[in-house]
Design goal:
The chain is globular. About 35% of the residues lie in helices and about 25% in strands. The strands form five sheets. An eight-stranded antiparallel beta sheet has the order 16-13-15-14-18-19-17-20, with helices on both faces. It has a five-stranded antiparallel beta sheet with strand order 6-7-11-9-10. Strands 3-5-4 form a three-stranded parallel beta sheet, covered by helices on one side. A hairpin with a 6-residue loop joins β1 and β2. The longest helix has 25 residues. It contains 14 helices and 20 strands. It has about 450 residues and is α+β, with helices and mostly antiparallel strands. α7 runs antiparallel to α8. The two termini are about 35 Å apart.
Amino acid sequence: MSSTASGKNGTWRNWGGNVSARPARQVTPASVEELAAAVRRAAEDGLKVKAVGTGHSFTSIAATDGVLIRPQLLTGIRNIDRSAMTVTVEAGTPLKRVNVALAREGLSLTNMGDIMEQTVSGATSTGTHGTGRESASIAAQIKGLELVTADGSVLTCSEKENPDVFAAARIGLGALGVVTAITFAVEPLFLLTAREEPMPFERVLAEFDQLWAENEHFEFYWFPHTGNTNTKRNNRSAGPEQPVGQLAGWFEDEFLSNGVFQVAQWVGRTAPAAIPAIAQISSKALSARTYTDIPYKVFTSPRRVRFVEMEYSVPRAALVETLRELKAMVDRSGLRISFPVEVRTAPADDITLSTASGRDSAYVAVHMFRGTPYQAYFTAAERIFTAHEGRPHWGKVHTRDAEYFTRVYPRFGEFTALRDRLDPERLFQNDYLRRVLGS
């Protein structure tokens, strides 16, 4: 299932199917030198430049009518430094390949999101994250970056080298240059025990602070139209390994989470009135289970049902109130919501435009099945999130602009000043960046 596949006659589409673009040309560089040459050539021809990964963003952050750079030849592990405990990977490497290669070497990232189809640069540039009490987003695990800037030169940055660029470029939105390689901190491979269990919505909210404090990684899914949630607690474990059995894993992760869920979405799209009944059934379908495995097998899961998503980060202290307002809105709205709402957390980090920049954060993600009208639901949810100074995920649907971001990101001006310096001619501009960063 390659979501990078282009449509006919040079049209590019994203994974969610809600964004398409027709670039003037597409380039697949096989080296950093070729990429730098493509950037210089685009500038000479007066064309804008965008790099695109697997298209997992729901915004038009990667769309361009200029030169579209596809990184599928810039993949693989450049080097593993066991004394520094880092791995350097080419920007187009899918997270899945990084995870498998590291595990083979007895290493792992500390934390990750729940999907691993994305390229490392696409995931980090948009701020992809999992959930964690102390461990933050994938970008927060970056120790060094290499990027091709607007003049075609290759810039490297870290805490010691070009630290101002490093502060911003870890989540750079594609606005500062094209990332060509990333160095991540890694640690010896460890085991996680996952404990998944249903829990009433009201109990999760009442005990949220405790559930957060007692677990390294806590998250839950609330099923709208029900008072039910499914909670997941991941904690480090001494072992032994007890993976989910193949049959049980197929039943829970493929049949229930993808197969039955897909059918439920189709039924819900045809007969929205049936959704609350379906929600009651699906919120009870997943039973409690406990298993122990290496990190990427616990953190990530396949997502085969295509959807469109909006996700906002709010201050962690505002989470419970935000969720109560969201539930009240759904209950009185007449909306029929067939997808669970996902809730995760992250500690404050020091990345300029990270959704967790400078504040302990909680994430609330709302989804709609691809092809169903999502505007009414997302608009109502967004109104609640923004009332709590929410910061939208850069790769998910939102309607915010630069004027809003100057209010919710204290260091917003730092980022735009750096962009003025690195890309004064706006070679990497597109409609999305014009909206979120200003022109």
